[in-house]
Amino acid sequence: MRIKIISTAVIAAALFACNSTQPVETNPNEKIIAQADSFLSEYNQKYQELYYQSAEAAWTLNTHIVEGDTITAKLAEQADSMYAAFTGSESNIKACQYFLAEKEALSPLQVKQLETILYNAGSNPAIAGDLVQQRIKAETKQTELLFGFETLLNGKPVSGNEIDGILANSNNLKDRQQAWEASKEVGKNLKDGLNNLQQLRNQTVQALGYEDYFDYQVSAYGMTKQELMDVCKDMVAEMWPLYRELHTWARYTLAQKYKQEVPEMLPAHWLPNRWGQEWSGLIEIEGADLDKTLEPKGAEWIMQQGEEFYKSLGFDALPPSFYEKSSLYPAPKDADYKKNSHASAWHLDLDKDVRSLMSVEPNTRWWGTVLHELGHIYYYMEYSNPEVPMVLREGANRAYHEAMGSLIGLAAMQKPFLVDRGLMSADVETDATQALMAEALDFVVLIPWGAGVMTEFEHDLYAKNLPKDQYNQKWWELKKKYQGIVPPTERGEEYCDAASKTHINNDAAQYYDYSMSNILLFQFHEHIATKILKQDPHATNYYGNKEVGAFLKKLMHPGATVDWRTHLKDNLGEDMSAKAMLNYFAPLMDHLKKVNEGRTHTLPESI
Ligand code: X8Z
Ligand code: ZN
């Protein structure tokens, strides 16, 4: 049965009727509580239904991209429009405002739901209906252009995995540069679309009083833009001395590897990642080449072992539908469709229908990504419980969501775990400092990229209306400032290198989530290692420990029904802080200072 949405007039009439018919001694709070409950239960039901339809259509759009397939795009747009019309409807907004005016009378859970409903309305307000429609269309188009793009290398189509393979393994700088440049070609096609989305995203949220789209996305954390930018600035500043040492180490190490002079800044194509966002591929730990171990085992094995790890902590097996409906492996070479090549996890019905979209291959990078995505999936499954209303089936904040699987990814690279799981021989004498290096090249290197480059670019894009003819200049200015990375050759405004990053197109103004998640996950890890496992945080083995699982479930179970700060304090006894991460990497700082002695640093001492 379709539920009619209550309008303010209906609510007011209902209240009035109640007032005139109820006995005088009835607590007036009870009435408004009951009214709000009835509104919320109807809302949640309809929300789930429309969310599901829209997610299903988006799933098809992302897993089966066929050039010129207007039907899939149309279906996705239609479903999105229905979802937008409901979540942004004037009557729903008014109802929330009406109830929130009586906040004190309501329960905290009701207030949280009403606030979230209003927040969701913020990106789709009916009063900006035409703009919302245009934005939905533009977003669908951008996804098609990004993932339908045929990247060519020497005239032949190549996949993202193949580009990554070259950047991970080739010592030939010419090949590397070609692969890197090929991976940026897609940006040219996306520039107009990004410019269009920049305007449309801003205009739609402005209709409900947000300053701009960046302001809107940040408000989910209960922060102002300035507060968020300050948090990001602090994260970058705290990690900077370590990043600066890593940068110097990487310049000298790579110059030697490629037999070149030591460059002032790192050429983008020298690094083992298209965006230079993580450099863990630069280190090889003797006797512990996980790539070699994983290769013969195959992609399916990686998936299965990932699930096994979570199960060993006490999580349930994945529902059979996960394997039936997910799109886990690369599309066959001769497939007549393309798929989104960036990994993601989906909660389609906000209940049991969980899926992941990946292109898993048997290597270390995908091992980490599988565990990351499964973290999202298990978070979905954990908060899909009767205590969490549909509209609050989200992470305590977005960074929590990103942190869970990355935490397991960190744990899954530590020696005691690898030995336990037969992925490393117990006899291998590993160098603990090298292992720490590999972790820093992943988790530390992401901070200036995420909290610096990506965040400041998107801040300027939305909050400062960055002009289109300055996109690339700004991008490379930030890459140099925060990452010390420069392009192989001049990149003019015909390119749009920022748009080669998925999130700029379809996960806009949220990338600080990942930097915050790295900070949070070291706090979680320190707690687990010292309080639960009583092991050195650098050498843990979570496998099979139900207490670790119980702790994670406790973090996950309430979804967004809790305030993220209170939740952290309640479970860890502390606020968000980089202290755990800094402590963890402290031994590396001493080591790097020694290794870099006599070398020239080209990044400033502080930022
Ligand atoms: O996008 C992701 C995940 C999906 S939420 C694979 N990550 C960021 C990225 O790839 O840019 C994980 C780490 C950073
Ligand atoms: Zn993620």
UniProtKB/TrEMBL annotation:
InterPro entries: Peptidase_M2. Zn(2+) 2 binds at residues 372, 376, 402. GO terms for cellular component: plasma membrane. Residues 1-23 form the signal peptide. Glycans are attached at residue 154. CDD domains: M2_ACE. Zn(2+) 1 binds at residues 372, 376, 402. Chloride binds at residue 221. It comes from the Bacteria. One of its GO terms (molecular function) is peptidyl-dipeptidase activity. One of its GO terms (biological process) is proteolysis. Keywords: Disulfide bond, Glycoprotein, Metal-binding, Signal, Zinc. The active site is at residues 373, 503. PANTHER family: ANGIOTENSIN-CONVERTING ENZYME (PTHR10514:SF27). This is Peptidase. It comes from Acidiluteibacter ferrifornacis.
